[in-house]
């Protein structure tokens, strides 16, 4: 099975390798928010090659040299933190119903890989603890809190876990020497960032963990943001992250003018990657890290 899985992965990699190679060649010293400050964040892991939010996707992203892995956090029926994007398990497992309908043990018993390819049948829904135990201090972690209004107290649980596994992790704490060298070239690059579309939740996270950078995700229905709203977001968030198709040079400059950073999601092709670099964004969230 391992050899077949490797074959599947490398076939997929081959289809997009020219994109990543070409994009890498375009890096230049175009300004303080280019080249050396450009983060590559693996969206739900290397989800363009392996099933999203699984150990296979996260480990592949790590091997491919991503600066961060991005993953989604919700809560199980018994109040445990679990890593899954959708509110339901329908799309990525053979089960149906809300995540909160199942206990952690039940979720961990679900096949969360076969929907992508039969070779991933042994991939299951992960607990937050599993991801933190495996990756905290080895690669940057971009943690997205999904639908926090459905899970009262989720911010406190995330804060407790971050304190336990990674509070205060900085560049010097990364154990991968190659990645350490890359991260050392990125000014004030943190090891953990927490983001959400829910601004109330993110303000709560900032209050709970003031030393950990937080990011606000801006939905297209909220765009464009008035200057006053940008000022408000900048008062507590270190990053204001946008869908790549909403970004232009003026908006990137407005965010940088407030001494905040911006990451673009979800970038899936060479053209969009190059455009983001030209705009001077601080990083991209992509299904195809490398």
One letter per element, helices H and strands E, the order comes to: HEHEEHEHEHHEHEHEHEHE
Mass-distribution shape = globular
Radius of gyration: 18 Å
Give the rounded overall mean pLDDT: 86
Query: The biggest beta sheet, please?
Result: 8 strands, parallel, barrel
Q: What spatial order of strands do you see in the largest sheet?
A: 1-2-5-6-7-8-9-10
**Helix coverage percent of residues?**
25-40%
Q: Hey, roughly how much beta strand do the residues contain?
A: 15-25%
Structural class: alpha/beta
Domain module tally: 1
Query: What is the class in the CATH system?
Result: Alpha Beta
Offer a quick outline of the entry.
The protein has 290 residues and is an alpha/beta fold.
Model description:
It is a single chain. The chain has an 8-stranded parallel barrel. The protein is built from 10 helices and 10 strands. It has one domain (2-86, 128-286): Phosphatidylinositol (PI) phosphodiesterase (TIM Barrel, Alpha-Beta Barrel), CATH 3.20.20.190. Helix 2 (55-63) links the parallel strand 1 and strand 2. With 290 residues, the chain is an alpha/beta fold.
Q: Could you list some keywords that capture this structure?
A:
290 residues, alpha/beta, TIM Barrel, 8-stranded parallel beta barrel, 10 helices, 17% strand
Topology:
Blueprint lengths: L1 H24 L13 E5 L11 H9 L4 E8 L5 E3 L20 H5 L17 E2 H8 L4 E6 L8 H12 L11 H8 L7 E5 L2 H10 L5 E5 L8 H8 L4 E5 L5 H9 L5 E5 L2 H10 L3 E4 L4
Parallel strand pairs: 1-2, 1-10, 2-5, 5-6, 6-7, 7-8, 8-9, 9-10
Antiparallel strand pairs: 2-3, 3-4
């Amino acid at each position: 099975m391992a050899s077949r899985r490797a074959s599947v992965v490398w076939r997929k990699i081959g289809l997009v390798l020219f994109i990543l190679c070409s994009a890498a060649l375009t890096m230049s010293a175009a300004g303080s928010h280019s080249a050396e400050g450009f983060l590559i964040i693996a969206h739900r892991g290397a989800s363009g090659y392996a099933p999203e939010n699984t150990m296979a996707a996260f480990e592949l992203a790590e091997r491919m040299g991503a600066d961060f892995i991005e993953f989604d956090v919700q809560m199980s029926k018994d109040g445990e933190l679990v890593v899954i994007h959708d509110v339901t398990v329908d799309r990525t497992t053979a089960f149906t119903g809300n995540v909160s309908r199942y206990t952690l043990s039940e979720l961990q018993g679900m096949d969360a890989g076969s929907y992508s390819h039969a070779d991933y049948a042994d991939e299951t829904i992960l607990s937050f603890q599993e991801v933190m135990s495996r990756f905290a201090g080895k690669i940057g972690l971009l943690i997205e809190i999904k639908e926090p209004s459905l899970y009262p107290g989720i911010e406190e649980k995330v804060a407790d876990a971050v304190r336990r596994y990674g509070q205060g992790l900085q560049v010097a704490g990364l154990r991968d020497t190659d990645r350490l060298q890359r991260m050392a070239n990125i000014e004030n690059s943190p090891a953990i960032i927490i983001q959400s579309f829910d601004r109330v939740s993110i303000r709560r996270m900032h209050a709970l963990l003031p030393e950990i950078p937080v990011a606000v995700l801006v939905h297209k229905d909220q765009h464009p943001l008035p200057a006053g709203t940008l000022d408000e977001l900048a008062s507590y968030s270190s990053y204001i992250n946008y869908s790549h198709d909403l970004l232009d040079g003026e908006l990137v400059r407005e965010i940088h003018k407030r001494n905040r950073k911006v990451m673009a999601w979800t970038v899936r092709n060479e053209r969009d990657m190059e455009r983001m670099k030209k705009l001077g964004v601080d990083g991209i969230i992509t299904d195809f890290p490398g």
